[in-house]
Amino acid sequence: QVQLVESGGGLVQPGGSLRLSCAASGSIFSISAMEWYCQPPGKQRELVASITRGGITYYADSVKGRFTISRDNAKRTVYLQMNRLRPEDTAVYYCRLPDPLVPEYEYWGQGTQVTVSS
Questions:
Q1: Which 3 state secondary structure label does DSSP give 91?
Q2: Phi and psi angles of residue 50, each rounded to the nearest 5 degrees, phi first
Q3: CB contact set of 68 (below 8 Å; sequence gap of 6+)
Q4: Is 1 helix (H, G, I), strand (E, B) or coil?
Q5: Helix/strand/coil for 100
Q6: How far apart, in whole angstroms, are the C-alpha atoms of residue 102 and residue 5?
Q7: What is the DSSP string of 21-80?
Q8: Which residues contact 59 (CB under 8 A, 6 or more apart)?
Q9: Residue pLDDT, tens place only, 66-99
Q10: CA distance 109 to 118
């Protein structure tokens, strides 16, 4: 069983920065891709960024050049550095671990709220 715990959300002014963290339990972290999703108010959850176990990254167009995903396998933690935040980045942010051994399994964190407002 894998548990994911996000932290680092909060209220920030436009143009500010936040760093989200997602700490994972379980030994499969190091062989798993990791993903960050966001769910803005009243909208569906959408993929923001992902990182493979080898460090290859993907970003949604809306965050390219502003957000950076990274991972520390020794700490079993994935990060999302969010810079130049905009009001439209306001959302609950979730991390997801797709089980690399059992494709139909996936694990989600509880989410952390990010609010960008002046």
A1: strand
A2: -145, 160
A3: 79, 80, 81, 83
A4: coil
A5: coil
A6: 21
A7: EEEE-SGGGGGS-EEEEEE-TTS--EEEEEE-TT--EEE-TTTTTTEEEEEETTTTEEEE
A8: 48, 49, 67, 69
A9: 999 999 999 999 999 999 999 999 999 999 999 9
A10: 28
